[in-house]
User: Fold DegV family protein from Adlercreutzia hattorii.
Amino acid sequence: MAIRIIVDSSADMEEDYAAEHDITIIPMTIAFGSEQFAEGVDLSREEFFERLVETDELPRTSQIPPMVFQDLFQEAVDAGNEVVCITLSSHISGTYQSACIAAAPFKESVFVVDSENATIGERILAERAWALRDEGLSAADIAYCLNQEKKDIRLVASLDTLEYLRRGGRISGAAALVGGMLSIKPVVGVVDGDVVVLGKARGSKQSKNMVFQKIDEAGGIDFTRPIWVAYSGLSDATARKYIADSLAQAKAAEEAAADESAVPDDLPLTQVGAVIGTHVGPGGVAFAFFARES
Assistant:
């Protein structure tokens, strides 16, 4: 019996990467005015950000309806397979509820996991799923492990502005107003499934330092489990600078502590997709990782 892993497109996983690891991506829908697109299918990430910076109207995103999940679940079960489905945080989207509704008739075969995270935070949980599958765990055991390990996931991001989160209704207007003053660069994270403002820094350098501070406060990065860096917008230059500086700090700390945990020479980098990009705007850099100490 094979185990099929399914994620929604807000995990920001590339199609070729998903195909290589036998993961199915269900696209979410994004609309610019009357035009609707399936994320990653009808609209590339680059095309999305080109449109985003040119429009005055915030795009709209839609959760995946139960029927879409149900069709995929039925197909898998009919083929004699089990399913582990990982979704965007239920605090952010109704997609998790849709998946649960669709999974109800398949209680012994389909297991839905609320990532309680977003973008690459959801992605690294999906990567743990295929690693556990490769270890030979059952679908039920994989879902159990994911529900335990997701508590160790931290997502910390530096944004250029809070305006997109405000316009999308993710934070209050007052919080966004403060963030817009005096070149304030907000640092946000996902805590208990919700997007929260972790701090505000004046200027890009202090913002980067605050991101690293929040990573340290989380207990540091467990490099034995998946880690990803993501950028929003059309340029990855800032994100690559973050990677270089973060690895330099990690290697220095490792040497000072005589720590035998291996710090890699580079970190994987991806571009944020349309669903998450709608709410954070361009100019953001995010780290998603499993904390060494929870």
